[in-house]
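INTERNAL AUDIT FORM
Audit reference: QA-55
Scope: verify that the stored structure record matches its stored sequence.
Auditor: D.O.
Record contents follow.
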Amino acid sequence: MSPANRRVQPRVVESGAVAQPAPGGPWRWGAAIGTAFGVALIVSTSVGAAWLARRYVTTSARFAVASVQVAGNERRTADAILAESAIVLGSNVFSVDLDSARAAVLADPWISDAVLSRRLPHTIVVQVTERRAAALVALGDTLLATADGEPFKKLEPGDPVDVPLITGLTPEAVSEDREEARRTIRRGIELAAEYEQGPLARRAPLEEVHFDSGGACTLVVGRTAMEIVLGGPPFRRKLDEAARVVAELDKRRAQAAAIMLDNDVRPERVVARLR
């Protein structure tokens, strides 16, 4: 049969069936466009709201820094710590760079740690931990040292001086072996505390703890600067022996310039050099 005479069968749609639009047709494109428009509207609304909120909290007078609360300080005043932090009263509480302010506070040798936080709506809290001076250390300059033996600042007017003075260390020795220098300073602090608990402390206050290059120790005590040459440990026994020698000399109305207790070969041998 030729194409011209071929009969075209009509398309029959069964009763109850609904003709569906072809895939990719105008119906699907319209739905996609509507969805995209809705999403874009939501996003733009959220961005606008966030921008307005940010603008409010960064410009509103409600969030201007009205106070800086400093806690944990004893040696340093709150005003000094505020000045070091460079936090400006009246500035926006969210614009304060807490990390930079903390670094500035930690540059103070008295401050060993600092934690800064915001307390909304208008307060900055600065919690500090201060170092405590446990000794004076003669190292060319006189330095303050902590109880763990770490020198942390030069002695200045107003700094505490009612702590043991430790001598004999050199800057070169500290540079060569800092940890050993710290151990020596700790040993001096502990020995000073042990002396203060003994019978000689009241009549002959401790003036100096001296270490020679080999680590042997000598105490300088009293207004007459009597030397108690201890050498090495055990120090408690040697301090008790020094007290007995001084008591015996008192009976004889004599004074010692030095008491030698550093004979480790014959520890029972004690030599007193009289004035």
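Auditor finding: record pair retrieved intact. Residues 106 and 131 are 11 Å apart (CA to CA).
Action required: none
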